[in-house]
Design brief:
The complex is a heterodimer of chains A (about 550) and B (about 325). Chain A has a five-stranded parallel β-sheet, sandwiched between helices. Chain A has a five-stranded parallel β-sheet with strand order 8-15-9-10-11. Chain A has a three-stranded antiparallel β-sheet with strand order 12-13-14, with no helix packed on it. Chain A has about 550 residues and is of the alpha/beta class. In chain A, helix 4 packs antiparallel against helix 5 and helix 6 packs parallel to helix 13. The longest helix of chain A is centred in the last third of the chain and has 20 residues. Chain A has three domains: about 70 residues, 2-Layer Sandwich (Alpha-Beta Plaits); about 250 residues, FAD/NAD(P)-binding domain, CATH 3.50.50; about 150 residues, 3-Layer(bba) Sandwich (FAD/NAD(P)-binding domain). Helices cover about 25% and strands about 15% of the residues of chain A. In chain A, a hairpin with a 4-residue loop joins strand 18 and strand 19. Chain B is α/β, with parallel strands linked by helices and about 325 residues long. Chain B has one domain: Thiamin diphosphate (ThDP)-binding fold, Pyr/PP domains (Rossmann fold), CATH 3.40.50.970. Chain B contains twelve helices and ten strands. In chain B, the strands form two sheets. Chain B has an eight-stranded mixed β-sheet, with helices on both faces. In chain B, strands 2-3 form a two-stranded antiparallel sheet. The longest helix of chain B has 21 residues. The two termini of chain B are about 30 Å apart. The chains are: A alpha/beta (about 550), B alpha/beta (about 325). At the A-B interface, strand 1, helix 15 and helix 16 of A face helix 1, strand 2, strand 3 and helix 9 of B.
Chain lengths: ~550, ~325
């Protein structure tokens, strides 16, 4: 029997609701605050995401795209990445440096090798002056891209300040050696014990190489005005650390005074404690977060290091400087200190002004000045005046005020990219999304579980020797910690946009999602409920 | 048929005419996708029916029947009885708004439960007659402005209280009655799956924000439904044979102002002394519900903070929990 009434409804899909909208969502990666502050511009979110999936080697490869020293930097970097971590607004920052170290150690223990990413070898040759973090980082990038690189260094071992200036309790030498070996294994030629102007001339360098990268660091200690070379028992901080790091046996007097407020001063003080001396650190600046900070500057040393130093018995005096050295005959009996008014003069040079009548005596058999250092341009007088157009780049500490080692790594990376650009006539890779920053205010933190930060343990017996103080994370803790990353601004496929779209206009793909703009009405729910702030709402332009 | 998405059916698919940011469209898509295409859906008159079946275009990708306003539960009873008589056990699901549940459809619903039909009745509660232009229903909460409960000299919006429909349902001594809302998808999933596993009448009240009637930004539909729970105004509970068997605890109680502020329908309360008194009244109602259901007591676990948490790579959401466990 034929039905009397035949109804064949069509599908609502024929009606495109997309033209209702006045604004529309757009998936857009952002550049998280950790990476913004990382001096080496590591894509921290990306390598943590790989680690959280247990893809450890891929994570290490992602990390080393920018920084070939994860085991080293994970130990010594003062991790400025962690203070702006958006997770601080939920519970506490992700232990990024602990994760970096974990990946670096994993690579060393498993013997993972770096890979050349270029299809073919390039003809150009580049000379890198200085085998420190900047030079090695630059050479690493160039070698990965198929260029032939030669590194020159005046010292007998590579590593620069990492080798000569960082104490064993923060960075065991074998860790640094392994990471440098892995870099050199890319086919980099390393010429040690070679000083420009003595063993090779500037002209030779210009003739032999297409580009030169100067990363000679700052090996010249700044001299204090009261420094009297006729007195024994006065030393510079970097010289003290150099001798210690190259294994020279040292005996210290029972009382040592260290002058300075930077990280070198703290390193020197902690080393001197380990050699059995009572140490007074005389810092011209104010303590961290002091209410009197407006009077001067905060001490530049890392707060963490200051806390560790005090825990190890370093006695710190703030806002004091040396007025003169006090000697009896040829020996030093101590120093006279006075309270500081200002630390830097009008030209911005380090020149403390002392208050009359505040002098006091501090007994010390040895004074170590750690008040800064400069680049030593001997032998490079001509090259140091050249510029990029002439094929000469300057990077690392030598290019600016001494900064973090990670900044030197970043400077090496940037220079390498610039050098390659001049060879390839291609513009530097610009990641547009890196301009889009993200703060916790654009995120929905209530979608994340509160989880305690995994902190590495610290050894108890510290002053017995130079054993590494901070231990590494366990594998369980590392996996957990990687999962704590909020993935700020970068989709982690939580499904929220897909669930909450009232118009079924978000289509889930095998990876990520697609918006079907035929039907999206532009309500903005997806953007509002995206935990990580990956979705932007933008006006519809006719 | 819409096969754009390989991870769910989209039983309520795109092209429907719901307002931008519609909480009911969101809720109905979630619920029907959790149940699947092998069910018969009976829809009472209301927003959902109107906006999904416009101009002979259906947004439904499963068998779907429109009844009149009052008799959805009665139509479903007949469908279920016919299926039973022909030896089939296709699930039958009723969808209705608060008008078709609290007011007009209450009698048929009560009869359906009393006769013990194996039907899930889902009420998408948007707290007024939105489809006809925001008139008050018995679900409209105290103090709300609608076109038929305007604030003025004599009252601050609706004077009467929101009908406690879940208690009425539970009083039928029925197998399962529960409340849910769109902001807590994992909670909704547990409840839909539980109801579908029970033989006999089940009732689900899903709070579904309405940007038009509640007068909030269309982007805030999920946030507002979350705040309804977090303030204690809309407790998420389960009742089996009249007994309270489950509550979603609150990790913390938020003040009702957090919920009222984004919604224009409560705006007038912030403008006068009498209004502020009604806000205190609403706070007292929230406190009373929290006390009644013990929302701040006991150990946490299934609480308002934990259920919200998202996972990297999602939850495999629309696959049945039993399949995921295997």
């Amino acid at each position: 029997m034929k039905p009397k009434l035949a109804i064949a409804p069509g599908s609502s899909l024929a009606y495109k609701t997309g033209d209702w909208r006045t604004q529309q969502p757009r998936y857009r990666d952002k550049w998280p605050p950790c990476s913004q502050t990382c001096p080496a511009s590591e894509d921290i979110q990306a390598w943590l995401a790989l680690a959280s999936d247990g893809k450890w080697q891929a994570a290490w490869r992602k990390l080393t795209e920018r920084n070939p020293f994860p085991a080293t930097m994970g130990r010594i970097c003062y991790h400025p990445c962690e203070s702006p971590c958006n997770r601080n607004h939920l519970d506490s920052a992700v232990n990024i440096h602990g994760m970096e170290r974990y990946l670096g150690d994993l690579a060393i223990n498993n013997g993972w090798q770096h890979e050349v990413i270029a299809d073919q070898f390039q003809s150009q040759k580049i000379a890198v002056m200085g085998a420190g973090p900047a030079g090695l980082s630059c050479a690493f990038q160039l070698a990965r891209h198929g260029y032939s690189v030669t590194i020159f260094d005046a010292q007998a071992e590579p590593g620069g300040t990492l080798r000569s200036g960082v104490p064993d309790y923060r960075l065991p030498k074998n860790v640094l050696v392994k990471e440098i070996e892995a870099i050199i294994a890319l086919g980099i030629e390393l010429r040690l014990n070679t000083r420009v102007g003595v063993d090779i001339s500037e002209t030779q360098l210009r003739d032999e190489f297409d580009a030169i990268f100067l990363a000679i660091g700052t090996q010249q200690p700044r001299i204090h005005q009261s420094n009297d070379s006729s007195i024994h028992n006065v030393m510079s901080g970097i010289n003290f650390l150099y001798r210690l790091n190259y294994g020279e046996p040292m005996t210290l007097p029972s009382q040592v005074a260290v002058i300075g407020g930077g990280n070198t001063a703290i390193d020197v003080a902690r080393c001197a404690r380990r050699l059995g001396a009572a140490v007074t650190l005389l810092c011209p600046q104010d303590p961290h977060s002091s209410h009197r900070r407006q009077l001067g500057t905060e001490m530049p040393a890392s707060l963490r290091e200051v806390i560790e130093a005090e825990a190890e018995g370093v006695h710190i005096r703030y806002r004091v400087a040396v007025s003169r050295l006090v000697r009896s005959s040829k020996h030093l009996s101590g120093i006279e200190i006075a309270r500081v008014d200002q630390v830097f003069d009008h030209q911005g040079d380090f020149n403390p002004v002392l208050f009359e009548g505040t002098e006091e005596f501090v007994a010390a058999g040895l004074v170590i000045f750690a008040i800064g250092q400069e680049a030593d341009w001997h032998g490079l007088e001509v090259l140091s005046q050249a510029n990029e157009l002439e094929g000469v780049w300057i990077g690392g500490d030598a290019a600016a005020q001494p900064k973090l080692a990670a900044a030197a790594v970043g400077s090496g990376y940037t220079s390498a990219m610039q050098i390659m650009t001049t060879f390839e006539d291609e513009p530097l890779l610009h990641d547009e999304y890196k301009k889009a920053h993200i703060t916790y205010k654009q995120m929905q933190l209530h979608y994340y579980p509160k989880q305690r930060r995994n902190e590495a343990s610290v050894i108890e017996e510290r002053l017995e020797g130079f054993d590494e103080v901070v231990k590494g994370l366990s594998s369980d803790a590392a996996l957990h910690e990687a999962n704590r990353c909020l993935s700020c601004g970068v989709c982690f496929e939580c499904d929220n946009c897909w669930h909450f779209c009232p118009d079924a206009a978000v289509i889930k793909q095998t990876e990520k999602y697609e918006i079907d703009y035929d039907y999206c009405k532009g309500c903005g729910i997806c953007a509002n409920e995206c935990p990580c702030g990956h979705i932007d709402m933008e006006p519809v332009v006719e | 048929m819409d096969k754009r998405d390989s991870f769910r059916h989209n039983i309520l698919t795109s092209g429907h005419r719901a307002c931008s940011g519609c909480g009911e469209a969101m809720a109905a898509r979630m619920v029907t996708d959790l149940i699947g295409p092998d069910a018969i859906y009976i829809n009472a008159t209301g927003c959902l029916q109107v906006f999904t079946t416009h101009n002979q275009q259906s947004a439904w990708q499963a068998p779907w029947v429109h009844s009149v306003f009052a008799n959805a539960a009665a139509v479903a009873s007949g469908v279920e009885a016919a299926l039973r008589a022909s030896g089939k056990n296709t699930p039958v699901v009723v969808q209705a708004g608060d008008g078709g549940t609290f007011d007009i459809g209450l009698q048929c619903l009560s009869g359906m439960i009393e006769r013990g039909h194996d039907i899930l009745f889902v009420c998408y509660d948007n707290e007024a007659y939105m489809n006809t232009g925001v008139q008050r229903s018995s679900s409209t909460p105290h103090g709300v402005r609608t076109t038929t409960s305007p604030p003025g000299r004599l009252s601050q919006g609706k004077h009467h209280l929101k009908k406690d429909v879940i208690s009425i349902m539970a009083a039928h001594h029925m197998p399962y009655a529960a409340t849910a809302t769109v902001a807590y998808f994992p909670d909704l999933k547990v409840k839909v799956e539980k109801a579908m596993g029970i033989k006999g009448p089940c009732f689900l009240q899903v709070l579904s924000p309405c940007p038009l009637g509640w007068q909030h930004d269309s982007a805030l539909s999920v946030s507002v439904s979350r705040l309804a729970v977090e303030t204690g105004l809309f407790p998420l509970i389960e009742l089996e044979y009249g007994e309270l068997t489950g509550v979603m605890r609150l990790s913390e109680q938020k003040p009702v102002e957090d919920y009222l502020r984004p919604q224009g329908r409560f705006n007038h309360l912030f403008a006068s002394k009498e209004g502020l008194k009604e806000i205190r009244h609403l706070q007292a109602l929230a406190d009373a519900r929290i006390h009644r259901y013990g929302l701040l007591q006991g150990e946490s676990g299934w609480d308002s903070e934990q259920v919200l948490q998202v996972d990297r790579h999602g939850h495999n959401s629309y696959r049945k929990t039993a399949e995921l466990d295997q």
